[in-house]
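Reply to dn_fold:

You asked what the input looked like. This is it:
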Amino acid sequence: MGRRGKIISSFVVAVFAILLVRLFWIQVIDDSYKRAAQNNVLRREVQYPPRGEVYDRNGELLVRSIPSYDLMAIPRDVGPFDTAALARIAGVTTEKLRAELEKASRYSRRRPSLIVKQISLEAKLLFDEGDYPGFYTVYRTMRSYPRKMAGNLLGYIGEVDAATVARDDYYQSGDYRGMSGIERTYEEVLRGEKGLTVSVVDVHGIKKGPYMEGMADVAPIPGTAITTALDGRLQALGEELMGDKVGSIIAIEPSTGEILVMVSSPGYDPDELVGRDRGNNYMELLRNPRHPLFNRGVMSRYPPGSTFKLVNGLIALQEGVVSAYTRYPCHGGYTVGRGVKCHDHRSPVNIRQAVQMSCNSYFCHAFRNILDNPKYGGVKNAFDAWNEYVYSFGFGHSLDSDLAGELEGFVPTRGTYDRIYRGSWNSLTLVSLSIGQGELGCTPLQMANLAATIANRGYYYTPHIVKHIDGRDSIDTRFYEKHYTKVERRYFDMVVDGMYDAVHKDGGTGRMAYVKGLDICGKTGTAQNPHGKDHATFLCFAPKNDPKIAVSVYVEHGGFGGSIAAPIASLIVEEYLTDTISRQWLVDYVKNMKIDYPYYDRQQK
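and this is what came back:
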């Protein structure tokens, strides 16, 4: 054999060797072909667990899961069927059913596709009685809300997008996850673990029984139940009182930081974002100019108004620039520069009286004393120190709660005013900050947290909505940590006394919050509003010496804080502390108060 013959022989041997190796690999080592063959006779179906229930602090069910089914199809296996009957069962038009089947065929003729989601148990039973080759149902659950309240707080679930599927291998196309509220924050707790069933099917896609007598199946693990700190009856009262008003009510238990109430108004019935009408309802809510999907409690940035005087008064006391005996005159307001107007009240006043009567002049003097304090060597350094004080009260940063979408609010810094005034500014330039106006922006949660901080005489716990998670000894450790302000405890009593007088003494701006025997301490606020009537706000806590509840109410365009926000807060306090309302006339007064919202109404048009 010549050289050429040897080369050809070697080539042929090499080819056969490669073929033998490949054949050995396919038949012995690689099981992909075996699995492909099995896929022709086996159907793997994901078993979705029910999401965990959500309860209020008293064990009342707020969110539950109810049975639902998705209608699936494998286009290759679909045989002749009664299109009109199946469409009727699924609750869709025949055109919609055919369109979904065509879409599924374009996607894959071999792989299962979702045809109609969330059909009822009754529809599923009717389906089982018919003959629909290639179709089958998958058990799912959907959310139901027995109390139909706290939509923004509880949140809703929705179908995952492609980015979520790519980022988290738990999810597949068509899966659902929490999109807002508690559903989003505690998604990994509530969702549970998916299971799997493997069934033997014939060539028509009809199930013949479990594969390996069910030994290949994996049972789903239901989601974990959560007990919230929310008081359901108190939440319902808050939503009733707010009615068609725009604003927020937040109540906190000072000794724990647990959130008892979180009303964002207007809200929505959470059942509107469940089922096949969810998309249409969502778009309606999205188009509403009053933004019911927007959780004002943690996402709005409001001027705090006169409630912020409490912070400036405490800083002034700590800095030693005022004392319990310091008095300032008020003849219609603060008269330096362009001035700051004030309502009529006796003059001069000390800090306790200034809090009671909400004296603008007193707090303008106190604020300027803070910034003009010679120990800092200049107003800008003093303003930096003021910022640190304000930050310690929980303003200008996220409180790190477990509420989805919580914003930081805004506290201006030295840099803010250097940009606005090109570096040339002084204490008089910033005097509007003394009464909670100017560039300040605070969330209602931060204002409720201020009430809790003063109730505790100088510290707060991180506000949180979850009280207990089944199977766990405790919640996140950050919720047990005390956060201290930079103001010593001994200075808080002067401010607390003024808050008590504001509710209990003649001349107090919060007299409409008075409830006999409850020792409510409060502070009114009227925040300027560029879009119309001033906003009304009020914060309080009770009882004075053993605080059980701290409340903040913010009513957009509500006017004077004492006329609408204070009554609402006092009704929340009374219901919580006494389990009853003694002043039905006040409930009627609040509910019947109509507020015009020209800013939102213009958007509607």
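The longest strand covers residues 61-73.
Hope that clears it up.
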